[in-house]
Amino acid sequence: MALLQPTSLVFTVERQEPELIVPAKPTPHECKLLSDTDDQAGHRFQIRGLHIYRNNAFACRERTPLKEGPNRKLMVDCSGEGVLFIEGDADVTLEDFGDSLHPPFPCFKELLYELPASIDLLNSPLLQIQVTRFKCGGFIFAHRFNHNMSDAVGLIQFMSTMGEMARGAVAPSIPPVWERHLLNARDPPLITCAHLEYDHDKATTALKRSIPDNLRCSTFDILTACIWRCRTKALELGPDEDVRFICIVNSRSKFNPPLPLGYYGNALGYPAVETTAAKLCQNPLEYAIKLVKEAKGKVTEEYMKSTADLMVIRGRPNVNTVRSLILSDLSRARFREVDFGWGKAEFGGPASGEEVISFYIPSKNKEGKEGITVPVCLPAPLMDSFVKEINRKLKDDEATGG
Question: Which stretch of DSSP H or E encloses residue 309?
Answer without folding.
Answer: helix 301-313
